[in-house]
Amino acid sequence: MNNPAAASLIEVNANGAFCAVTSELTCYAPEWAIVNYTEKQLSKHDYLTIRNEYFDDLVGQRTGFKTPYTEHLLGWGHWVGSTVLFRPELRWEHSYDLPVYDNGTRHSQLTFASDVIFFF
């Protein structure tokens, strides 16, 4: 943190903005985003998810890079009975103005992730 006098204004465990000028107690971190979810039930136990997002970090204080981003996700949900949900997904992310992924060497990254949720 650049300004110890602003410590009481910081929300703990949040991704807040960091002011570039050390004498500022607060600063402006503009950003905007839009997201779309489309889901289709394929069967009693399966559904498909398509997610698209556009995010613009206007001054780079939210992500550390002043660039717009897009993200596109294809996911599948599979219920095992009524208490276990398996959710694999494939996600592609892209930054437009700067290479922000892989230590600043790439504009895009592809991720495969999955989780299992136990309902009780």
Question: Briefly, what is this?
Answer:
The chain is mostly beta strands. It is 0% helix and 50% strand. It has a five-stranded antiparallel β-sheet with strand order 1-2-3-4-5, with no helix packed on it.
Structure in words:
The chain is mostly beta strands and 120 residues long. Helices cover 0% and strands 50% of the residues. It has no helices and 5 strands. It has strands at 31-41, 46-57, 67-80, 84-95, 108-118. The chain has a 5-stranded antiparallel sheet with strand order 1-2-3-4-5, with no helix packed on it. β1 (31-41) and β2 (46-57) form a beta hairpin. The relative contact order is 0.14. The mean pLDDT is 88.
List the helices and strands and how they pair.
Elements: E1 31-41, E2 46-57, E3 67-80, E4 84-95, E5 108-118
Antiparallel strand pairs: 1-2, 2-3, 3-4, 4-5
